[in-house]
Description:
- Helices cover 76% and strands 2% of the residues.
- By secondary structure, it is mainly α.
- The chain has a two-stranded antiparallel ribbon.
- The longest helix is centred in the middle third of the chain and has 54 residues, at 182-235.
Amino acid sequence: xxxxxxxxxxxxxxxxxxxSLGKNKVKGKLYEDAKKTLLIRLSxxxxxxxxxxxxxxxxxxxxxxxxxxxxxxxxxxELRKRIKTKVPKPExxxxxxxxxxxxxxxxxxxxxxxxxxxxxxxxxSLDVKKANLNILPSSFIAIVLLNTLLALILxxxxxxxxxxxxxxxxxxxxxxxxSPSLLKIVFNLFLFPLFFVLITFVFSxxxxxxxxxxxxxxxxxxxxxxxxxxxxxxxxxxxxTRVFKLISETKEYKNFNVETKRIVNKINFYGYDLLTAIKExxxxxxxxxxxxxxxxxxxxxxxxxxxxxxxxKKASSLMLDYKLKRKKFVSVAGVYADIYTGLLITAPIIxxxxxxxxxxxxxxxxxxxxxSIAIIGLIIIIMFNIGFIIFLNTVQPAE
Length: 399
């Protein structure tokens, strides 16, 4: 049996550790686990002391051993109180999402039509899942319809504005009422609504695909490090289900964690087995590389192969692709800069010079004067700049 001196030394050391933990303001799972472990060890020491003394703790408290270290009856009672105290469970973070008022309004207007369109177009459901929009496909279609309706109203308003108002910028910016011809009114009422409706509908409808494409690049940039992390966890003997849970709890892989959380949720809430959960998630992930990784893991588990060896080789391959991709982007960035300079800097300057030469001559082009053409050109330039920024955010590697 362990000597009393060693027992008392260990007990006093653990008491000090427990007290330091109590003074520490750090909370969370790590703190609670450490506190629980100390309480269990203190409980075993207290039981040992009581068994040695035959239940008479006062006799032990009178003995001074190991340079005056003693454990009084009050200390034993205090240990018992601490041991009996229930360790509070760490609070779980529950994410509560409130309904978006815009989505609610869109569903109120177009719920029936949107649901029928969603049932006919199954690709929208897959695009919404790949983009991780966290809304129903019918709600997304309702949003597209509402956006198109608002664009139509805005287009009609601007058409009326340009039909009955005349804008002049020389010598000072002024606005005058005009008496437009019937042809100009019809042209404006057709051109502006059509332009705004087409732009809004195309952007809204293809937004999930653009978002999914953006997620592809972000996921692919995280994959090499995810594979190395998974390989390290597997090498410690952790079962595959626990590997995905540990990866989903880390904050380093914000984009890939969306996929691992889906696997964990399919297992915990839907009752899927691990292989089915991995294969179902592989179908909805936007990245071909992550799909290949998931299918490879499922095949290795199903055939009883060496998962650690597979993940190490996969991590090496993904890291090589990651380095090549970044080198390629550096070379292509120069081409993007030349395109931007030519189309969105030089061309608008030439356009402005031509308009400044035509304006003094007067006359209309397609029923519009030079000032109206200048405003439309400015709007188009702004739209192209916004589109170019979106394109760069989509194709550039993650930081």
